[in-house]
């Protein structure tokens, strides 16, 4: 019997072999060696209740405040914007990654960050290669947690994509929401994008632009937050745009153009290869914070409450 069959059998024996139509609640937490395909997001139709997909994550600072949106890519690998996380990368003590969906079976869905990898050519506050690979100490637990695939489609003008966020960039307009929201945006050409920036924007070859929703209240622009097309991660919210003026396009890093950096970083993390073309942020040396403390921290802040989902059984 092969591995996948025996895994299925074990799941069924544990009475957690759920029919497809009930959505995805996994029988166990992600393990450092969980193969990516076992937890790949199956699209909107596979979500459970108000859960957008277990791959939507947020990064919190040591005080438990929101820093960046992020996407879950592999057991210990998270993708976000380099500009967003860079200011925190020298002192990662207490910086955590938290799932946005939480089932009643879960005791915690937060993980500590070990290191952050930046592309060698990334320059802080510039658009080129604005992507970072966050390496976690341990996987984000949770029965709803999933991975998202990297974009394989060529991003073209007029394509409609979905961006996720909490609205932290939009605080002048209204309070950020405790639950994540989504908004549909339309990709525009680089030419059109440059035209709308009066002061001669130097759009990078790794950037894509999308028109913002007209209503600023629907604008979502939290740095590092995912932009998805169908079931794939095609962009992350990049540097430079804001919700104050939605006539100005939003800028995203084109995941397809930075794919090699991500997969190289992944290989280096998996193989512990020290010769990768990436730069490494300072390693966190102190390991004093306990898991229960991290959990308590994530529990006590009502603003960043996770979406609660009621699974069939634990
Ligand atoms: C966007 O949000 C709406 C309302 O919560 C939901 O029905 C829809 O499935 C979401 N779209 C995606 C792609 O998650
Ligand atoms: C790393 O690169 C150096 C030279 O740049 C080489 O000597 C060494 O063998 C490489 N190590 C690995 C593990 O590839
Ligand atoms: C939680 O962290 C505080 C410092 O922030 C520490 O004093 C306390 O002992 C920790 N609690 C546990 C249960 O580790």
Automatic annotation (TrEMBL):
Gene Ontology molecular function: serine-type endopeptidase activity
EC top class, as a word: hydrolase
Signal peptide: 1-23
Chain ranges of the Peptidase S1 domain: 40-267
GO aspect biological process, one term: proteolysis
GO cellular component, one term: extracellular region
Chief place where the protein resides: secreted
Catalytic activity: Preferential cleavage: Arg-|-Xaa, Lys-|-Xaa
EC number, UniProt record: 3.4.21.4
Coiled coil regions in record: none
SMART domains for the chain: Tryp_SPc
Keyword terms: Disulfide bond, Hydrolase, Protease, Serine protease, Signal
One Pfam family of this chain: Trypsin
Alphabetized PROSITE patterns for the sequence: TRYPSIN_DOM
UniProt subcellular location: Secreted, Extracellular space
PANTHER family: AT26814P-RELATED, POLYSERASE-RELATED
The name this protein goes by in its record: trypsin
């Amino acid at each position: 019997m092969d591995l996948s069959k025996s895994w299925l059998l074990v799941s069924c024996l544990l009475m957690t072999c759920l029919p497809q139509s009930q959505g995805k609640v996994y029988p166990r937490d992600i393990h450092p060696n969980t193969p990516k395909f076992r937890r790949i997001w199956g699209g909107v139709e596979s979500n459970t209740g108000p859960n957008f997909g277990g791959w939507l994550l947020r990064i919190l600072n040591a005080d438990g405040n929101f820093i960046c949106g992020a996407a879950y890519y592999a057991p210990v690998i998270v993708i976000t914007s380099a500009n967003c996380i860079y200011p925190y990368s020298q002192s990662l003590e207490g910086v955590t990654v938290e799932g946005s969906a939480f089932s009643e079976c879960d005791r915690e869905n937060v993980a500590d960050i070990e290191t952050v990898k930046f592309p060698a050519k990334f320059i802080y506050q510039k658009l080129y290669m604005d992507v970072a690979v966050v390496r976690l100490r341990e996987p984000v637990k949770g029965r709803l947690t999933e991975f998202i695939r990297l974009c394989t489609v060529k991003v073209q003008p007029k394509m409609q994509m979905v961006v996720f966020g909490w609205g932290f960039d939009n605080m002048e307009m209204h309070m950020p929401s405790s639950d994540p929201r989504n908004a549909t945006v339309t990709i525009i050409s680089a030419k059109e994008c440059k035209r709308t920036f009066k002061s001669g924007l130097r759009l990078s070859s790794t950037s894509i632009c999308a028109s913002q929703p007209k209503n600023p209240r629907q604008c979502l622009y939290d740095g590092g937050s995912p932009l998805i097309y169908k079931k794939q991660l095609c962009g992350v919210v990049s540097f430079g745009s804001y919700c104050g003026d939605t006539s100005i396009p939003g800028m995203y890093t084109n995941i397809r153009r930075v794919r090699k950096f991500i997969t190289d970083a992944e290989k280096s993390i998996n193989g512990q290869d020290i010769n990768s073309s990436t730069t490494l942020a300072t390693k966190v040396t102190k390991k004093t914070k306990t898991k229960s403390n991290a959990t308590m921290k994530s529990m006590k802040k009502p603003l960043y409450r996770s979406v609660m989902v009621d699974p069939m059984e634990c």
